[in-house]
Amino acid sequence: MIVRKLKEIRQGDKNIKSDGWESARLLLKDDGMGFSFHVTTLYTGAELHMHYQNHLESVLILKGNGTIEDLGTGETHELRPGVMYALNDHDKHIVRVENEILCACVFNPPVTGREVHDETGAYPADTSEDREPALSE
Amino acid sequence: MIVRKLKEIRQGDKNIKSDGWESARLLLKDDGMGFSFHVTTLYTGAELHMHYQNHLESVLILKGNGTIEDLGTGETHELRPGVMYALNDHDKHIVRVENEILCACVFNPPVTGREVHDETGAYPADTSEDREPALSE
Questions:
Q1: Which of A37, A58, A108 is the closest to B58 by Cβ?
Q2: B17 CA: distance to closest CA in chain A (Å)
Q3: Which domain does A88 fall in, by range?
Q4: Cα separations in angstroms, A77 against A73, A115, B5, B109
Q5: Is A91 part of any domain?
Q6: Fewest CB atoms within 10 Å of the CB: A9, A66, A80, B87?
């Protein structure tokens, strides 16, 4: 059993800060769960253009509000506590933050913790040898 | 892109009520994410004996408090907002709820939504033919 505290993760090297957001990685690939699990803060006013070409992601909004624009369909959805979105088709999207958003995020395959968003707004594929999720069957 | 609202899930047939808990399934196996994602309420006073023999699970406490006892090690950990536990070794455990707990849960492989806890406190393995997570490689 792994037990971790968000407060401690935020003070360590698994708390990643970037342009418009920071993310506390509670579970990463090395934990062997087959997914990674992050608590992410999106700063007020941020406009984040993202396209995860190598990952599926789901996000549950816990605090704050904003919008997500689906660039595939042109639709814009409100984000507020209790709204979940899932990028099940590597959807290009823009998140616009009206009031600082706190959200719980799951990535499959799991993030290693060493990625940075590249110029397309993606995390690169994990090219290490043992990239299989723990429960691939 | 899938967008769902917890409030709506709670009013539909993806909100499962059982003895001591209820769980709103925001993402299930059929959504093709390779994991399932639930927001679960554990009622005050509940003592839940669990052993997921067929699944890995991670849980982030959002509200409330209680304890988790790891029956493998005998250790008891406090549960309160910001604490995450991950059952990475099919750990037998008991959750005791002091004040109603709200938590975000991820299961790998994904729950189909048709399971019930059996007499061992496990969900049975998914025996349907297409049980591979979407991103198994």
A1: A37
A2: 19
A3: 14-108
A4: 11, 28, 11, 29
A5: yes
A6: A80
This prediction has a pTM of 0.87
SS3 B71: coil
CB-based burial label for B91 (10 Å; 0-12, 13-18, 19+): buried
Sign of the dihedral through C-alpha A114, A119, A123, A125: negative
CB atoms within 10 A of CB A8: 12
Of B1, B7, B93, the CB nearest to A82: B7
CATH number of the domain residue A49 falls in: 2.60.120.10
Q: Per residue in A80-131, pLDDT tens?
A: 999 999 999 999 999 999 999 999 999 999 999 877 666 566 777 776 544 3
Q: Is residue B20 part of a domain?
A: yes
Amino acid in the structure at residue A96: R
**Mean pLDDT across A33-45:** 97
Q: Please give the tally of structural domains in chain A.
A: 1
CA distance A3 to chain B (A): 4
Least CB–CB distance from A83: residue in B5, B106, B132 = B5
Which chain A residues have a beta carbon less than 8 Å from that of B73?
Answer: 1
In a domain, A66, yes or no: yes
The distance of A69 to chain B (nearest Cα, Å) reads 10
**Residue A134 clears pLDDT 80, i.e. is over it:** no
Per-residue pLDDT of chain B (137 residues), as tens digits, is 999 999 999 999 999 999 999 999 999 999 999 999 999 999 999 999 999 989 999 999 999 999 999 999 999 999 999 999 999 999 999 999 999 999 999 999 999 987 766 656 677 777 654 433 322 22
Instruction: Report yes or no on B45 lying in a domain.
Output: yes
